[in-house]
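Tutorial handout. Part one gives the primary structure; part two gives the three-dimensional structure as tokens.
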Amino acid sequence: MKKLSKVLAVALAIAVIAVTFVACSGGSTEKEKLSLATSADFPPYEYIGDNGAYAGIDIEIAQAIADKLGRELVVENMDFDSIVGAVSTGKSDMGMAGLTVTPERLESVDFSTSYAKGIQAVIVKEDSPITTVDDLYAEGATYKVGAQLSTTGDIYFGDDISEGLTTCTLEEYQAGADAVAALSSGKIDAVIIDNEPAKSFVAANSGLKILDTKYADEDYAIAFPKGSALVEEVNKALEELIADGTVQKIVETYIPAE
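Part two.
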């Protein structure tokens, strides 16, 4: 019996050594993670689907990039105004949330090649006296304009107020939906927001419309910590996905070509 026990003990020891050797020699299939900072309240670029999973243009493009790099995509949902900070401090590997390349943001983060074009639009009530963007810049105009905190609409209109280009006032909201709710309830007179989310909000809230005149054009890109080696890797993957039509196919899944 003692002899048998010794044989079993030796066999067990050999098995443990074998498992340890496999683990140390790269036998593990666990992928390196790629963390993505986003704000999932910006359809169709990022949102939480009916099944509770993250969805949208940015999410699918990020997943395609992660697949090319052989990494596991980990989505980190947060307030929009926290994304640049999370990326610039290295808490997240990259950020995608319909992010526009601006001089202010370039002071904190680096950007990838642009992967989509965006338009800043203005939402108003259907019976609003505001009929064009120019009405917001008319002499003596006192309209209350809403925007999601730290978005380009917020930044651009705030700059215009500071430079004396408009006498309107700016109300900042944590989420685009909050700004639209304030517009619907009459607390503000207009909302500046990206055109595609604007379409979704107008479709979901009766009595609102999008002005025919656009507020601004912009390029969407991926944000990275300053000097990140990922910029080159991701750009290579992204440019391949643009060249083979993958990015366009993803975009047209959510925004059908007119």
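Part three, for discussion. The longest helix spans residues 2-24. The chain has a mean pLDDT of 90.
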